[in-house]
Request: fold
Amino acid sequence: MAKLEEYREYIKQLLTAYSHYEKSDSEVEAQTIFDTEHDHYQLVYVGWQNKRRVYGCVLHLDIKNGKIWIQHNGTEANVGDELVALGVPKQDIVLGFHAPYKRQFTDFAVG
Reply:
């Protein structure tokens, strides 16, 4: 259980840090969504820019079977490596946005 709580905190820390990257004069809000009951975590952008609606998921991570699944990474950063730097072993990180047959060719878990 301690590992699960630790992973939740790492994910919250990571998403919160990314949420602060928005411009202060922007009408687009970065929202963090932390569902600790089902272990779904997201960073979404919501608002308006140049009279156009902005809405989209930037990062989506889940915790399933004791592993952190990176379901979507809309940044240029390597979120997997950032989790490793926080202390998560590579065998506990799954790049869910890669097809299952491709995961074996990464340094991370296959599922």
